[in-house]
From TrEMBL, chain A:
Entry-linked InterPro entries: Cyt_c_oxase-like_su1_dom, Cyt_c_oxase-like_su1_sf, Cyt_C_Oxase_1, Cyt_c_Oxase_su1_BS, Cyt_c_oxidase_su1_bac
Organism: Aquibacillus salsiterrae
Pathway, per record: Energy metabolism; oxidative phosphorylation
Protein name per Swiss-Prot or TrEMBL: Cytochrome c oxidase subunit 1
Cited function: Cytochrome c oxidase is the component of the respiratory chain that catalyzes the reduction of oxygen to water. Subunits 1-3 form the functional core of the enzyme complex. CO I is the catalytic subunit of the enzyme. Electrons originating in cytochrome c are transferred via the copper A center of subunit 2 and heme A of subunit 1 to the bimetallic center formed by heme A3 and copper B.
Domain Cytochrome oxidase subunit I profile: 10-522
Catalytic activity entry: 4 Fe(II)-[cytochrome c] + O2 + 8 H(+)(in) = 4 Fe(III)-[cytochrome c] + 2 H2O + 4 H(+)(out)
Location(s) in or outside the cell: Cell membrane
EC supergroup of this enzyme: translocase
GO biological process annotation, one example: aerobic respiration
Bilayer topology: Multi-pass membrane protein
GO MF annotation terms: cytochrome-c oxidase activity; heme binding; metal ion binding
UniProtKB/TrEMBL annotation, chain B:
Name recorded for this polypeptide: Cytochrome (Ubi)quinol oxidase subunit III
Similarity field: Belongs to the cytochrome c oxidase subunit 3 family.
GO MF term (any one): cytochrome-c oxidase activity
One cellular component (GO) term of this entry: plasma membrane
Source organism of this protein record: Aquibacillus salsiterrae
Residue stretches making up the Heme-copper oxidase subunit III family profile domain: 27-204
Annotated TM spans: 27-48, 68-88, 100-118, 138-163, 183-203
Statement: the UniProt record of this protein carries the keyword Cell membrane: yes
Location relative to the cell: Cell membrane
Length: 618, 205
């Protein structure tokens, strides 16, 4: 029950604080740091890919190594960079936006983070242990079941463990948003970012178990001799494709919906208008989430499921363009007639709209099953999904970081460096990927490690690589920006943007308990309503009282460590059964921690109201 | 949280949902079961796709007999009923009776699990039907084995709760724990009803 503020904490104390924290704000920072690290790693892999393809018949990397960096680029960017960075924003913002003091399950929140990190480290340990996975991020069987070495085993165990963490995080946010909203915060008064978090958490809940099962089956086939995907034992490799995409398609909406939420927060604030068509935006979000489960087979048009199945999935896929179009128009109408401020966060938001629209249009083209036979497995597909994932998700993350940085760290990121990052990243992005549409239409297949000269592909690939270098430059400038801002940046007040939602109603820095008194929410854009009534703070919904807080715990870290050890045991027990010891030790640590968690009472503690004025919990 | 709020003089009607922590556990666990439903649905889908892929090995018609499975089903269904009675006693704040009914639940559960292990043992030793003999074998042991693993976990969980709280009785801190454990137990039971139908009944036809 620490109520004193240590001025000069030792490094060890700070480390211990972060290892044991259950505070959503600190967990958000942990997600940001590790997600950012994996983003740089995935970017490095992307640069290796683009350098290899800078000229025909290049041999910068070997064909086998190219397969590894290609697989790891996709896997890292989706599972270890984009999702954790989105979780960073969710953890930092959602409890504040709904007026809560913490999430519903602080302990599980920490566990989810540590499991993600353990999985990510297992996956990347493969680089040093005989080679990374090389079967593509989709790991189609039987390529993945027959891939030699342990690479794909690292993929299976790494994703299984980090996937468990993601599932936990999803359940946590669902319950937080249902149960922890402040008085007056009805569903239709929730900010859009909270709404998208809510829908995305539901998608995680219902999509990830399919991946869990797929990975189990793949693990059993590779490590324990089962025959799910082995035709010689009567198995069927198409089962993997179904399970993977039943997870995989909702996954892309898991990535993009929070980005939609970010833009729906930023555009109203910097247009000085409320979000146009709030109700329609909520409806469209829910509809996209729902339809996201109905379209997985559009990744499998060329498998041969038959014209009936292909037609149904084609039409369902095209239907998603409708709610997405609603959103695009609502963002445009939010800007219409607004008093617009252009800053870095806004630049990302404005450029997102046309960029994402291009990605959406190629999406509808790909949804035409007959035409997809031509597009399938070409660079046209690569261009399409980078337009939606980079042009949507990564722009959204950058925008969100610029927008919420003062909330997370108390300082505004440097605008000059921010704009430099934006322009180089934006131009580099279009240079890299726009040309790939045409490379694909000319027949350049994706995932190949090289191409022959004089087939009309040389110039396009050169341009694409130049663009990639611009993106890398922009990313490096962003890292410099973060460092410069933390060293030189000046502290700002709690509400630097003249914000509309609850997270801006808190002083800077955010106290440990978030809200001294739970706020009373009187409508959409709760803080803006108070400002319009001439108040500077939220109307409290309760008198000042003792504040109940959860205890820190090292158990989540140890549980993840247990699974980390067990993961290596599972991978290596096929070579030497002595490694089964690692399985038993690791699982023993996990189950032991669960047992301790069950039998040891954890009631949390109170910050007493008398201590609040003395600065307790700041 | 102070002792008085967790040990009120008069227990509320629904002690599992009387605190915010309890409400969160209750809802969170329902969501978790939603995820588990998808997990088992994926396993069922895989099994249905592979149930005739016997690879020259024994088929379901040759393997399955309904006598043993019928006894197992009765044991598990009854255990689900006894766990309902236990929760009924919890809501009446009758801790001793709740523990007794939970004990019966656990005994029935272990009976089920023993029979399942016996069944697997017979298949492997007498029929030479293993996890590695065919895609059907892999799918069968994975689906039924995942369920068996859930049963084992549920039994250990309920036992832990019973022993941990044996001396101090019911309060608003542990009531949600008992409640979600019983939810888990019902879920396992529902999954078994589908296994009984899809694996065994459809398997002998």
């Amino acid at each position: 029950m620490s109520t004193t503020i240590a001025q000069n904490r030792s490094f060890g104390a700070a480390l211990w604080d972060y290892l044991t924290t259950v505070d959503h704000k600190k967990i958000g920072i942990l997600y940001l740091v590790s997600g950012g690290f994996f983003f740089l790693l995935g970017g490095l892999e992307a640069m290796a890919i683009r350098i290899q393809l800078i000229k025909p018949a290049n041999d910068f990397v070997s064909a086998g190594f190219y397969n590894q960096i290609l697989t790891m680029h996709g896997t890292t960017m989706i599972f270890l960079a984009a999702m954790p960075l989105i979780f960073a924003l969710m953890n930092a913002v959602v409890p504040l936006q709904i007026g809560a003091r913490d999430v519903a399950f602080p302990f599980l929140n920490a566990l989810g983070f540590w499991l993600f990190l353990a999985g990510g480290l297992i996956l990347n340990a493969s680089w040093f242990l005989g080679g990374a996975p090389d079967a593509g991020w989709t790991a189609y069987a039987p390529l993945s079941t027959t891939s030699p070495g342990h690479g794909v085993d690292f993929y299976v165990l790494g994703l299984q463990i980090s996937g468990a963490g993601t599932l936990i995080a999803g359940i946590n946010f669902l319950v937080t948003i249902v149960n922890m909203r402040a008085p007056g915060m009805t569903y239709m008064r929730m900010p859009l970012f909270t709404w998208t978090t809510f829908v995305v958490s539901a998608l995680i809940l219902f999509a990830f178990p399919a991946l869990t099962v797929g990975l189990f089956l793949l693990m059993f086939d590779r490590l324990f001799g089962s025959g799910f995907f082995d035709a010689s034992m009567g198995g069927n490799s198409v089962i993997w494709e179904h399970l993977f995409w039943i997870f995989g398609h909702p996954e892309v909406y898991i990535l993009i919906l929070p980005a939609f939420g970010v833009f729906s927060e930023i555009l109203p604030v910097f247009s000085k208008k409320r979000l146009f068509g709030y109700t329609a935006m909520v409806f469209a979000t829910v509809l996209i989430g729902f339809l996201g489960f109905m379209v997985w087979a559009h990744h499998m048009f060329t498998v041969g499921l038959g014209p009936a199945a292909n037609s149904i999935f084609a039409v369902a896929t095209m239907a998603i363009a409708v709610p997405t179009g609603i959103k695009i128009f609502n963002w445009l109408f939010t800007l219409w007639g607004g008093n617009i401020t252009i800053n870095t966060a806004m630049l990302y938001s404005l450029s997102f709209i046309p960029t994402f629209t291009i990605g959406g249009m190629t999406g509808v083209m790909l949804a035409a099953a007959a035409a997809d036979y031509q597009f399938h497995d070409t660079y046209f597909v690569v261009a399409h999904f980078h337009y939606v994932i980079v042009g949507g998700v990564v722009f959204g993350i950058f925008a969100g970081l610029h927008y919420w940085w003062p909330r997370m760290f108390g300082k505004i990121l440097d605008e000059k460096l921010g704009k430099l990052t934006f322009w180089t990243f934006f131009i580099g992005f279009h240079l890299t990927f726009f040309i790939q549409h045409f490379l694909g239409l000319m027949g350049m297949p994706r995932r190949y490690w090289t191409f022959l000269p004089d087939q009309g592909l040389d110039t396009g690939n050169l341009i694409s690589t130049i663009g990639a270098f611009l993106m890398a430059f922009g990313t490096i400038v962003f890292v410099i920006n973060v460092i410069v801002t933390s060293v030189k940046g000046e502290k700002v007040g709690g509400d630097p943007w003249d914000g509309r939602t609850l997270e801006w109603a808190i002083a800077n820095p955010t106290p440990h308990y978030n809200f001294k008194q739970t706020p009373l929410v009187r409508g959409l854009d709760a803080f803006w309503i108070e400002k319009m009534d001439g108040r500077k703070e939220m109307t409290p919904a309760e008198p000042v009282d003792d504040i109940h807080m959860p205890n820190s715990s090292i158990l989540p870290f140890i549980m993840a460590l247990g699974l980390f050890i067990a993961g290596f045991g599972f991978i290596y027990q096929v070579d030497n059964s002595a490694w089964l010891a690692a399985v038993f030790i690791g699982m023993g640590i996990l189950l032991g921690c669960m047992f301790i968690r069950s039998v040891k009472d954890d009631h949390g503690y109170h910050i007493h109201k008398e201590d609040l004025d003395k600065g307790a919990g700041l | 949280m102070s002792n008085d709020t967790l040990n009120p003089k008069v227990m509320p009607e629904e002690p599992e949902k009387a605190t915010l922590e309890g409400k969160n556990k209750f809802l969170g666990f329902w969501f978790f079961l939603g995820g588990e439903t998808v997990l088992f649905a994926s396993l069922f889908g895989t099994f249905l796709a592979l149930r005739n892929s016997t690879n020259g090995g024994p088929s379901s018609q040759e393997l399955f007999g309904l006598d043993l499975v019928f006894i197992m089903t009765m044991l598990l269904l009854t255990s689900s009923l006894t766990s309902v009675v236990a929760i009924y006693q919890m809501k009446k704040n009758n801790f001793a009776k709740m523990q007794a009914w939970l004990a019966i639940t656990v005994i029935l559960g272990f009976g089920f699990l023993s029979l399942e292990i016996y069944e697997f043992y017979e298949y492997i030793t007498l029929e030479d039907f293993t996890f590695r003999s065919s895609a059907f074998g892999s799918a069968f042991y994975t689906l039924v084995g995942f369920h068996g693993g859930h049963v084992l976990f549920g039994l250990l969980w309920i036992l832990t709760l019973m022993i941990r709280n044996a001396k101090r009785g019911l309060n608003l801190y542990n009531a949600p724990k008992f409640y979600v454990a019983s939810l888990y137990w019902h879920f396992i039971d529902v999954v078994w009803v589908f296994i009984f139908t899809v694996v065994y009944l459809m398997g002998v036809i």
